[in-house]
Amino acid sequence: MGNVNRIYIFDGYRDTVIESQVFNWASALNSIGLKTTGLSLSKGKKDDAINRTKLEHLSQKYNIDVYSYQFDNKPLIRELQIIIILLRTYFRLKKKQEKIVFQTRMMGLIYIAPVCRILLGVKFIFDMRGSLVTEYLYSKSDLSQGDSKVMVLKRLERQIVYGSDAVFCVSDVLREYLINNYGSKSLKSSKLTVIPGAADQSYFYFSEILRNETRKQLSCNDKVVYLYSGRLDKHWQIPDKIFELFSYIYKHSVNAFFVILTPDTLIADKYCQACEIDKGSYITTYVELDGISPYLNAADYAVVLRENLPINHQASPTKISEYLLTGLSVIISKNVGDFSGFIEKNQLGFVVDIDKPDYCEWVTNQLNENMEIKVDAENTRIARANLSAQYYAKSKYLELIKQICTDI
Length: 408
Description:
Blueprint (H helix, E strand, L loop, with lengths): L3 E7 L7 H14 L3 E9 L4 H15 L3 E6 L5 H17 L5 E6 L8 H8 L2 E6 L3 H8 L8 H16 L2 E4 L2 H11 L9 E3 L13 H10 L6 E6 L9 H14 L3 E6 L3 H10 L7 E4 L7 H6 L2 E4 L5 H4 L4 H8 L3 E5 L5 H7 L3 E4 L6 H11 L7 H16 L5 H10 L1
Parallel strand pairs: 1-2, 1-4, 2-3, 4-5, 5-6, 6-7, 8-9, 8-11, 9-10, 11-12, 12-13
């Protein structure tokens, strides 16, 4: 078999995640010789023209070819249309002596994978960023494991585990969940590979020069800078908790300054105003992936809070890897994927129980006792960044992904 053409299938444009989780990976894999093409499949939407424009921008920025299609979401019609799209894509891109590997985070494609294998001889890799069952139970808290939809999702997860050619799990917790729930003698554990939400070291690294320049631009040279990065418009992002903590730090710590990187800047501004944080003590802005690092370098602490629930136990938010590769001290809640344990074990920040009523006071006490604006701060951050890169730099996983695509 000759070269491999990896076609990554994703469900349309999404702010904040698609650049780091799709395009940046594709570009990195291209750089080591694993040809990658993007395939966007989305339900018909009124804003499709806007989303296509955004995809075209990322396609040009990363030099990744992307083909966009829409489908009707009616059962059977949907599957038939997607099969036709995959056939069209296959014959458009297939060259002699080349193997086509479809990789996707769209779990429903497992239903059409057998047809495509028979017709085209292609391989399928599924990216699992969490359990479908766990996510559904989280969204419907009054349901039980015996609910009919839950049973359907369990069958779907089982089919992904056994019907795919490989499964990429974002955390060891998720991999163990799949093995514990669907494992058998016929399942090869090597089929399930952990590929975390890793970050690109060419973007995310610590630089004292960059730190000083950015702090000067933000007028926060004498401040202790706390950073949040991500969306704020969903309840699972628990913005109330984040700004409750920010408010407490602002009132009980010295020289606090807050950087909030989010497309939801209006929401962030409203929270800051409600918390009575002075306008000169925070900034809200949104930048693309290659513009994030200066703010992370300028910061002293990054904050990631999630509810202590199974959906978050399996997760692997890419932004945490970005924080770690810049040597930031991370304030993180308990049981966020593999990250909370990694941060606690290696003393890379504070792990906080947000279910305790005094968690804000506890965090603030830790901050006041362990202020990291020290003479050796630069060496400390470089050491942290180097340690974290051994586990959460994308470069550590590129050859592994290429090898799996070649071998399956």
